[in-house]
Design a protein that fits this description.
The complex is a heterodimer of chains A (276) and B (342). Chain A is built from eleven helices and no strands. With 276 residues, chain A is mostly helical. The chains are: A mainly alpha (276), B alpha/beta (342). At the A-B interface, helix 7 and helix 8 of A face helix 3, helix 4 and helix 7 of B.
């Protein structure tokens, strides 16, 4: 089963490209201290140096900070927020979706309305509002993005649980006297892993984008070198120093594209019937 | 506390055997299903006994309420709106209908286990066979002990190399092996009663015979009583001692397999027998007998079988027949068998 899945995944070029991009970004994030030529926060007298300036391959910003180092270090902030927020969203989604789908009835109706409520709230506006009110910080960002991103996972998990709660092997488990919690976690949940992994991957991409957007509006964690903050900083100097915005923007695009392609590839491999 | 429940069941099973008191005693059980069309009287006042270590067949066409009877014993219904209205289900003297949900959960799998028609769908595709067999035991003890018991259970049901089978996934086993694994799942805790709902219908004939042999062997080795639900009289003749024939939610005839299948008293049983004898086994009985089981939400008056009965009399449409004794231990609910109740 696992081998078959891998074979199907590696057959899709887009999925493999996504995996490579994600691997690249993760590698960069881990090796950032070794790869980056200097500290991303250290200013210098070489302000707005264009790419190719000796010692600054991607140029410098208005305070003389190295763009390359900023981009490399920024991958850490993006990945941390992306992965942790997606994990929060998926955990919440599983908890709510599983409860809703397994028990059905009024619990499902109630949680369904709550899910819809969270879905119709414009995520970005609410994230903006929360960060503006309560201030910014890495873990606050993770929490806000996570709490705003769970409905999709919840809906998928709910659908799967509704379909599987009537499965014969679930009846068999009930006949054997297993507890509900046991049935939910060890009988049904393992069957739901594939779609959840797909959602998680897409959630990471969305969270990274949201974090960068907040950063762009100056609402990122001020103590962190992040791509969004670099873009925010670049706004005022766009005409004089294009490199200040292009390189972090490119980094965001590549990362988000990578996670999206990876998610699509996993989805295609998990649902072979969609092949055509 | 948990292991107490389990060993308690075993001890009471061993002690009660000589007294001849039945292991399972169902009295006047009514289970109805509320549907938008009306109330479906799936089980409508049946009484049934299973002796310690005995083998009882519950026979009838599909839709006669056999499976609902089994679900009523376990108090689990696949259909929404199904509810046991009244009656009692005594297991070793305890009325299961009066137990709390938590006590009932411990009875399931521990004292009463059930196996089903299609073994392929009753195994979780993403979990190893061994894990699924061990699960019910692990709930009552630890995983280490559960693992050992599971391997033992896999060996008992006749799976070769049980250690290896433990780590396999269901799709790696054949149909017959899967049904053996399902039986191992059901018997791992040493239940005193095993309910088998059409356990061989989905299997081909040679495997069928092996599974029936296995059920008979488990009865001897583990002392597990068997309640076999089937539409196939041949299987009942081979496996059971006592048979109950069910029609439209009621027991129409019961007694020792030897008398009921040799000299059936109720026209319905006679019809089933005729079907079983003239047509090859695999063919459903319904094809032979005229008509089908009536709509359980809209039952005919009097005897429920009268619209299909070849020996129907005027009286049959008016009054439901009581049970008459027709031979030693044999009862039939038919006006042909007597004038007044036994």
């Amino acid at each position: 089963m696992g081998r078959e899945f891998a074979r199907r995944f590696f057959r899709s070029r887009a999925g493999v490209l996504g995996l490579c991009l994600v691997a690249l970004v993760i590698g960069v994030a881990i090796a950032a201290p070794a790869l980056a030529p200097r500290d991303p926060h250290t200013t210098s007298l070489v302000t707005k140096g264009p790419p190719g300036t000796p010692g600054y391959p991607l140029g410098t910003d208005d305070l003389g900070r190295d763009i390359l180092s900023g981009v490399l270090w920024g991958s850490r902030a993006s990945l941390t927020v992306g992965v942790c927020a997606a994990a929060t969203a998926v955990t919440l989604g599983i908890a709510i979706g599983a409860t809703s789908g397994y028990y059905g009835g009024w619990i499902d109706a109630l949680l369904g309305r709550v899910t819809e409520l969270f879905q119709v709230i414009p995520r970005f506006v609410l994230a903006l509002l929360v960060v503006a009110l309560f201030g910014s910080g890495l873990w606050k960002l993770v929490l806000v993005i996570g709490i705003l991103s769970w409905p999709q996972a919840a809906r998928v998990v709910r659908g799967q649980f509704m379909a599987l709660r009537g499965a014969a092997y679930v009846d068999a488990a009930r006949v054997l006297g297993l507890r509900d919690a046991r049935i939910i976690f060890s009988e049904i949940l393992p069957n739901v892993v594939a779609p959840v992994v797909v959602i998680a991957s897409l959630d990471v991409a969305a969270a990274i984008l949201l974090e960068a957007s907040l950063g762009f509006f100056g609402l990122g964690d001020p103590n962190l070198a992040s791509w969004g903050m670099m873009l925010n900083n670049a706004q005022a100097h766009f005409r004089q120093a294009w490199w200040m915005s292009v390189f972090p923007g490119l980094a965001i695009s590549i990362t988000v594209l990578g996670f999206n392609l990876l998610g699509d590839g996993l989805n295609d491999a998990a649902n072979p019937r969609l092949d055509a | 506390m948990r292991s107490d429940g389990l060993s308690g069941a075993k001890v009471s099973g061993a002690q009660a055997a000589p007294t001849g008191e039945p292991l399972l005693e169902i009295r006047d059980l009514y289970t109805h299903i509320v549907t938008p069309r009306g109330v479906v009287r799936a089980v409508d006042g049946i009484s049934l006994e299973v002796a310690q270590g005995g083998a009882v067949g519950l026979v009838g066409e599909s839709g006669s309420g056999k499976s609902m009877t089994a679900f009523s014993i376990l108090r689990l219904f696949p259909t929404a709106g199904a509810r046991t209205i009244s009656g009692s289900v005594r297991l070793s003297g305890r009325d299961l209908l009066r137990l709390s949900e938590e006590e009932m959960r411990r009875v399931r799998g521990g004292e009463v286990a059930m196996i089903f028609q299609d073994p392929a769908t009753y195994l979780n595709p993403v979990l190893t066979v061994g894990r699924q067999v061990a699960e019910a035991y692990a709930m009552r003890s630890g995983w280490g002990e559960a693992r050992r018991s599971a391997v033992r259970a896999l060996a008992t049901v006749g799976l070769p190399d049980p250690e290896a089978v433990y780590g396999r996934f269901p799709h790696e086993l054949s149909g017959g092996m899967r049904q053996r694994a399902v039986i191992a799942m059901a018997t791992v805790c040493g239940p005193s009663l095993l309910i088998a709902d059409e356990p061989t219908t989905a299997l081909d004939v040679t495997i069928q015979a092996q599974i029936l042999e296995l059920l008979a062997r488990l009865r001897k080795e583990l002392g597990t009583a068997l309640l076999l639900i089937t539409h196939d009289l041949g299987i009942v003749a081979e496996t059971c001692e006592v048979v109950y024939v069910m029609y439209a939610g009621k027991i129409v005839e019961s007694g020792p397999v030897g008398s009921v299948l040799v000299s059936p008293a109720h026209p319905y049983t006679q019809g089933l027998m005729a079907g079983a004898l003239t047509i090859e086994e695999a063919r459903p009985v319904v094809a032979v007998m005229e008509g089908t089981v009536p709509d359980l939400a809209n039952l005919p008056s009097g005897c429920r079988f009268h619209p299909r009965c070849p020996k129907v009399m005027d009286r049959c449409a008016l009054q439901p027949p009581p049970e008459f004794a027709v031979a030693e231990g044999q009862m039939a609910a038919c006006w042909l068998c007597g004038e007044s109740p036994a």
